[in-house]
Write a structure and sequence with these properties.
Blueprint (H helix, E strand, L loop, with lengths): L5 H7 L8 H9 L2 H10 L6 H68 L1
Helix pairs in contact: 1-3, 3-4
Length: 116
């Protein structure tokens, strides 16, 4: 059996006073976009329960997506901090080697001038 879209579900639930098993199952599997479309199409007059249930489901789904996004962002931030620390360490080493190279160049120049 083909899964119903949001508009079809909104039309089917107009006469219901509750939710119904089909509606609950559809909410469980619906995407954020489908839930939003359902909310736009369901009658708040004839079935306020389904409307509120859809809104609550949508809010929960959005919160879950935000949580996943926050977790990904936290991991990427940690990785960026680690890479920045590594870059700072390499910059310090480069600074040290540059100072050593300047000292060697000065010493070599002094030795060349002393030989003449």
């Amino acid at each position: 059996m083909e899964r119903k879209n949001a508009r079809e579900m909104a039309r089917l639930t107009e006469g219901l006073t509750g939710g119904g098993t089909d509606l609950y199952n559809w909410f469980r599997d619906a995407t954020i976009v489908e839930l939003h479309e359902y909310i736009l199409n369901v009658s708040t007059t004839f079935n306020p329960h389904a409307y509120e249930l859809a809104r609550t489901t949508l809010e929960i789904r959005i919160a879950a997506e935000q949580s996943e996004s926050a977790t990904k962002l936290e991991k990427q931030t940690d990785r960026l901090v680690n890479q920045t620390d590594a870059l700072v360490g390499l910059t310090r080493k480069l600074y040290f080697l540059t100072v050593v190279l300047i000292i060697v160049a000065v010493i070599q120049t002094i030795l060349m001038l002393c030989q003449k």
